[in-house]
Structure formats: C-alpha cells, structure tokens
Design a protein that fits this description.
Elements: E1 2-6, H1 11-22, E2 26-31, E3 46-48, H2 54-63, E4 68-71, H3 78-83, H4 85-106, E5 110-116, H5 139-158, E6 161-167, E7 169-171, H6 189-197, E8 204-207, E9 219-220, E10 222-224, H7 225-238, E11 244-249, E12 255-256, H8 257-268, E13 274-277, E14 286-287, H9 292-298, H10 307-320
Parallel strand pairs: 1-2, 1-4, 2-3, 4-5, 5-6, 6-11, 7-10, 8-13, 9-14
Antiparallel strand pairs: 9-12
The chain binds uridine-5'-diphosphate-4-deoxy-4-fluoro-alpha-D-galactose.
C-alpha cells in the first residue's frame, strides 16, 4: 500500500515508518517538523507540511495515490495540555479533523490512529481492558477521545475504516541505533534517567514514593516502540471499511519508576543518583494494559517482554547520539 504517515519525523512515527517499509509498503511522511526531525526520515520521503493546510493534504493524498493514513502527529504532554489546552485542541482535534476532511475529498478512507491510555483517565481495574469506561482526566486525553469518537462517526456515516491503537508507555529505540527518542524539552522517564548516566543531568527526581504500590513509586507498562510499529503494520491489514477497531497496546507487565532506574543502572554501569520529589499532578499510581484483544485480533505479541532489553536499545541510541538528532 501507499501510506501517508503524519508525524513520521517524530519518535513513534519514525519507527512505525521503518516497520511499514520493512513490510513492503511505500511510505510518505507528512510532518511540519515542529517536533519531528528531518534526519529521522528516509531521504526523499518527507513532505514538509502542516495538517491545517487542507489543500496540501488533499493534493498529497491524490498525487501519491495514498491508500491509508497513519496519524501520529499530535502533542502529547499531559501537564502542558492542562496549562495550554488551546494548543492541544487546535493540534490534536482541529488539525486531525482537517486531515479527515482532506481524506474525504481525496476518497482515502483507511486510518490508523495513535490513541492513548490517557483516554481511560484513572481506571480502577488493572490490567486495563477496552471495556474500561473512557473518562479522561486531562485535556490531552480528551483530545484523543474526541478523535476516536469522530472516527466512529466517520466510519458509520462515510464508510471510513479505522484502528484506534491505545498505547501505553512507548520506550526504547530501533536496534539499528540511528533513530530514537529526542524530545525538547524531554519529560519522559527513561531518556531522562539515561541523560543522568550521560552526565547531562546531576540526578533523577522520582515524582513521589508514597503511592499505593509495592515500592511506593508509579507503575507503568513500557512497550518497545518497534513492537508498537509492528502492531500498526498488522492493524492496517485488519481494517474494514465502515467499521472500527479499538485496541490497547502494552506488554501486560508493570514496571515501577524505581525498577526503571535500577534497569538503567545495570545497563549503563553508572550509579545514577536519585532524589525523591513531590508527586507530579495527574499521575495515576498504576497503568498496565490487558492487550489480549490486540494479541488475538492482530495475531501480534510484543517481542520485548522484559524491561532490560528495552532499556538497552534506548541506551544504544542515547549513547551514540548524546545530543539526539542535533
Ligand atoms: N517520572 C519521574 N521522574 C521524571 C519523569 C517521570 O518520576 O523525571 C515518573 C512519572 O511520574 C511517571 C513515570 O515516571 O510515574 C513515567 O512518566 P513519563 O512521563 O515517562 O510517562 P507518562 O506515564 O506520564 O506518560 C505516558 C505518555 C503520555 C501519555 C501518558 C498517559 O508519555 O503521552 O502516558 O498516562 F499521555
């Protein structure tokens, strides 16, 4: 298929683009480089454009004879979405609708959407299944839920077919070592801990050690970014026009903040000093996926089931590229 990957110059999008190419698809990346990196894209495959530019989107979809769109382009910082919701509604909702409308004009109806565990809010039952009520607790989660709803409506009314993939915590990097995680500012746990190992930060601050978890720190389900990419490739094949799939993507295994720091110590051989800070507002104590639906529907299983090999791939990237793509 000819696939348009929006946000394909970003962290998850660039990895998914690689997996799509490896599976034999023709990939075009559509990215305004506001967060993404030119060198994360394969040469000659980047279309520099904005999602608000409906005309460029429509002509791209037609000129490249696109069969399906994978939509990664979005802002994803929970805290920022609380202090600047307009930025999130504009980019994650208005721009996504501009994309859907361009698709309608170009008669492209297959869509894979980067959704998130944040659409569940603070669920009471762990592991989280797709049966859990989606009740976001921050604007970021709401913006993603709005698009999921729009997709359901577009499927029913206009014959779109889609997969909404709800990621847990994306982590790691391609084993090739040439693409990886590079956010500015960085807020994610693993890259920050590895920056301490690189000497770029003095210590890691643990955001709260008084949670109701075995070691008092928050538990997350870290899934390797290439396992996410593979699930996207498989989801593409399962899309049926007029219908939607909603699936969690995680490993089913929870890892605490302390366990992450310990894994990083083992992988890097650095001491990695730590300090205890206050809780970060909006952090649920535990988020772990039940991904059995995705495993069954897509005949998919994460290849990385332990945290240490995931951290090893992240460390390879950060070690080889201490300044990221700069
Ligand atoms: N953490 C620290 N210290 C840090 C950074 C993070 O203790 O310096 C902790 C956080 O409090 C959290 C855990 O490490 O408990 C993981 O934090 P991340 O920021 O790496 O990831 P989140 O779980 O907050 O965020 C992820 C995705 C978001 C998504 C969210 C949904 O990155 O895009 O899950 O809950 F919205």
């Amino acid at each position: 298929m000819n696939i348009l990957v929006t946000g394909g110059a970003g962290y998850i999008g660039s990895h998914a683009a690689r997996r799509l190419e490896a599976a034999g698809h023709e990939v075009w990346i559509y990215d305004n480089l506001s967060q993404g990196h030119r060198s994360a894209c394969r040469q000659g495959r980047l279309i520099e454009g904005d999602l608000h530019d409906g005309e460029l989107l429509e002509s791209t979809l037609k000129d490249k004879q696109i069969d399906a769109v994978m939509h990664f382009a979005a802002f994803a910082l929970v805290g920022e979405s609380v202090t600047d919701p307009a930025k999130y509604y504009q980019n994650n909702v208005v721009a996504a609708l501009s994309l859907l409308e361009a698709m309608r004009r170009a008669d492209v109806r297959r869509f894979v959407f980067s959704s998130t565990t944040a659409t569940y809010g603070a669920p009471e039952t762990i592991p989280i299944t797709e049966q859990e009520v989606q009740r976001p607790i921050n604007p970021y989660g709401f913006t993603k839920l709005v698009v999921e709803q729009a997709l359901a409506d577009y499927a029913a009314a206009y014959g779109f077919g889609y997969a909404a993939l709800r990621y847990f915590n994306a982590a790691g990097a391609a084993t090739t070592g040439d693409i990886g995680e590079d956010h500015d500012p960085e807020s994610h746990l693993i890259p920050i801990v590895l920056q301490v190992a690189l000497g770029q930060r003095d210590q890691i601050t643990i955001f709260g050690d008084d949670y109701p978890t075995p070691d008092g720190t928050c538990i997350r389900d870290y899934i390797h970014v290439d396992d996410l990419g593979d699930a996207h490739v498989l989801a593409l094949q399962k899309i049926e026009l007029g219908a939607g799939l909603q699936m969690n993507l995680g490993t089913g295994r929870g890892t605490s903040v302390r366990e992450i720091i310990d894994a990083c110590r083992q992988v890097t051989g650095h001491k990695i000093p730590e300090t205890i800070g206050r809780r970060r507002p909006g952090d649920p104590p535990e988020l772990v996926a039940d991904s059995s639906l995705a495993q069954k529907t897509l005949d998919w299983a994460p290849r990385y089931t332990e945290i240490q090999p995931i951290v090893e791939t992240a460390w390879r990237w950060h070690h080889l590229h201490p300044r990221g793509y700069e």
